[in-house]
Amino acid sequence: MTAQHEPNCAARATRNYPEEAWWVAGFSEEISGTPIRRMLLDHAVVLYRGASGRVVALEDRCVHRWAPLSMGRPAGDDIVCPYHGFRFGPDGQCVHVPTQRDIPGKAKVRAFEVRESAPFVWIWMGRGEPAEALPATIDWAEDPRWLTMGAALPVDCNYMLIQENVLDLTHFGYLHATTFQQPGWTAPPSEVRTDAGRVGYRQHFTGIRLAPFQAGPTGIGPDKDVERTDWGWFMSPAIHVAGIDIVDPSPGAGRRAAFSSRIVHATTPISPTRSHYWWFFAQDYALDDAQVARDVRAIVDATFEEDKRLLEVIQETISTDVRRDQAVEVSVKADQPGLKARLMLHKMLRPAAQALSSPDMQQPAAARSPRE
User: Fold this and answer.
1) Three-class DSSP category at 49
2) What would you report as the CA-atom Rg of the chain, rounded to the nearest whole angstrom?
3) Which of 249, 241, 264, 248 has the alpha carbon at shortest distance from 214?
4) Where is the Rieske domain (predicted)?
5) What pLDDT is stored for residue 323 in this prediction?
């Protein structure tokens, strides 16, 4: 089946990421009193946690001589440039120049709005007023009733290649056949829908066996048929939230019947062909079994390394193969969630594209009105 849909801008070296949106800047636990430099949406950003505990995000460039503030040191909630000691507040304003009393009026770096919501620190890179609500709230991230784990994984590909990968579970039976070993997903999802700028899928399985990483820890075993529901939501270009819910139809006296796991995929572009990828996994069973935690972590790590290797080669081919602008991309029914996500993304990108194509923006800078 071919489909009418927006072009795959992930297959081109374009900035296919809206700045007027919330993006993940990192795990909360990554941000400490030691400044770190992070490339986000083609911007160099310094992140640090001030003495008050607040997370600060500033342009990682001193306005004096371009030195990276990330190589400096915090002072309270401020940061001191490592080159000549200029000191900047969390709002980006220079508050001290060591060699003189007066501070130049333009001595200010850009400050970015940040919000902390476990397990992430979110950043707003746009010039407009930040959206009031974050794309997703992970209410189980700090819940002791869930076993949680996560990691950061840089991937040398466009971020939408990652988002479309996690929206398409039919690849599990091939790319992850010997690692994840999850049965099912031999057909497109039974339900795909859009709601309030999000794309969701759902697939229900009856009479199916569990994967090894589920069979033992749940106590159900590998030889019993269960009911399993897989679901996921593309909440925004920055984040995808998914889950697996298992029901044992005949658990036996005193035995538990329902088990759940959750996973979050957060993607933030570094550039058109490089991305930050953070994953965060949770399950509500086998909470105190250290060996189960190690086994699950090993499987998840191996699975995502398989994705990383494949996606990086796909991106390399897209970026370097002479056929990329003429090649036909064929879609099938199983691609519906990814195609709908592309449409959502293009709707978000259109206002910026229209602004860039306006007559005023196309004039040389010298020809624009002085008030611009």
Assistant:
1) strand
2) 23
3) 248
4) 22-123
5) 83
Task: Round the average pLDDT of the chain to a whole number and report it.
Answer: 92
Residues in the chain: 372
Distances in whole angstroms, Cα of residue 73 to Cα of each of 52, 69, 223, 242: 15, 8, 58, 39
CA 339 – CA 159 distance, rounded (Å): 15
Distance CA 258, CA 245 (A): 7
The dihedral built from the CA positions of residue 307, 213, 239 and 288, taken in this order, carries a sign that is negative
Residue ranges of E strands in the chain:
22-27, 36-40, 43-49, 55-59, 73-75, 78-80, 87-88, 94-96, 113-117, 120-124, 147-155, 191-195, 198-208, 226-236, 239-247, 258-271, 274-283
Q: Rounded to whole angstroms, how far apart are CA atoms 191 and 214? A: 24
The token duo for 371 is: 């008030």
Cα(245)–Cα(254) distance, rounded to whole angstroms?
Answer: 20
Cβ atoms of 166 and 264 closer than 8 Å: no
What is the arithmetic mean of pLDDT over 196-221?
95
Residue type, 124: W
The pair of three-digit structure tokens given for residue 155, joined into one six-digit string: 């991937």
Predicted confidence (pLDDT) per residue in 268-285, tens digit: 999 999 999 999 999 999
How far apart CA 72 and CA 65 sit, in angstroms, is 14
Is 175 exposed, middle or buried (CB count within 10 Å of its CB: 0-12, 13-18, 19+)?
A: middle
Element (H, E) at 199: strand 198-208
In this structure, what are the phi and psi dihedrals at residue 149, rounded to the nearest 5 degrees?
Answer: -160, 160
Residue 370 φ/ψ, nearest 5 degrees: -55, -30
Rounded Cα distance, 258 and 227, in Å: 10
